[in-house]
Amino acid sequence: MRKVTAGLFCSVDGVVEDPFLWQFDSFDAELGAGMGEMMGRIDTGLLGRVGYQQWADYWPNAETDNDFAGFINPLPKYVASRTLAGDLKWQNSRLIEGPLEEFVAALKNGDGGEIGVFSSISLVRQLLFAGLLDSLMLIVHPVIAGSGRRLFNDGDPLTRLVLQESQQTSKGNMILSYGLRGD
C-alpha cells in the first residue's frame, strides 16, 4: 500500500501559512537534503485549489535548473476543488472527481511510490482527520510568526500521534515526522 505524506513549514507558534515570509533565514543544507530525500520517494502529488492556483502560476515558469521545479512540473498532480472545472493548465494536473477520501483511498491501494500533499492546509487537515495521512512532517523553524493560519484549531477532534522521526538542523530547525497512533 502506498503512503500519503505531507510536509509543512511551521513557526514555533504554529503558523503554517506563507512560510516564505518567515523561514528564509533559517533554511539550511540539512533541511534541503531532507526535502530532497522526501522528493525522491514521491511520485504523485495532491494539491488543494488555492495551492494549485498559486503554484500553477509560478512553477511552470521557474528556472529549469531549480531542483523543485524539475521535480514538481512533470509530477502527476491531482487537485481537490469544488470550484475549478475543466482541464487544468499545469502539465500533468487533473481534477479529483468524486469524494476526496474515496479517491485518496483508491490511490493508496494502487501501485507506485509515496503520494505527497503539497501547499494545502485544508487538504492536510482533511486527510489527517480521515485517517488517510500516513506521515505528517512539521519543519519547525526557530521563529515566532505572530500571525497567520495555523494547522490546528480549537474544536479539532482529539487525535493521537506517534513520533516517527526527528532531526535538529544546524540553524535550529526541527524536522518532526508524525503518524497516526493506531489505538
TrEMBL record:
<protein>
    <submittedName>
        <fullName>RibD domain-containing protein</fullName>
    </submittedName>
</protein>
<dbReference type="Pfam" id="PF01872">
    <property type="entry name" value="RibD_C"/>
</dbReference>
<dbReference type="InterPro" id="IPR002734">
    <property type="entry name" value="RibDG_C"/>
</dbReference>
<dbReference type="InterPro" id="IPR024072">
    <property type="entry name" value="DHFR-like_dom_sf"/>
</dbReference>
<dbReference type="GO" id="GO:0008703">
    <property type="term" value="F:5-amino-6-(5-phosphoribosylamino)uracil reductase activity"/>
</dbReference>
<feature type="domain" description="Bacterial bifunctional deaminase-reductase C-terminal">
    <location>
        <begin position="2"/>
        <end position="173"/>
    </location>
</feature>
<dbReference type="GO" id="GO:0009231">
    <property type="term" value="P:riboflavin biosynthetic process"/>
</dbReference>
<dbReference type="InterPro" id="IPR050765">
    <property type="entry name" value="Riboflavin_Biosynth_HTPR"/>
</dbReference>
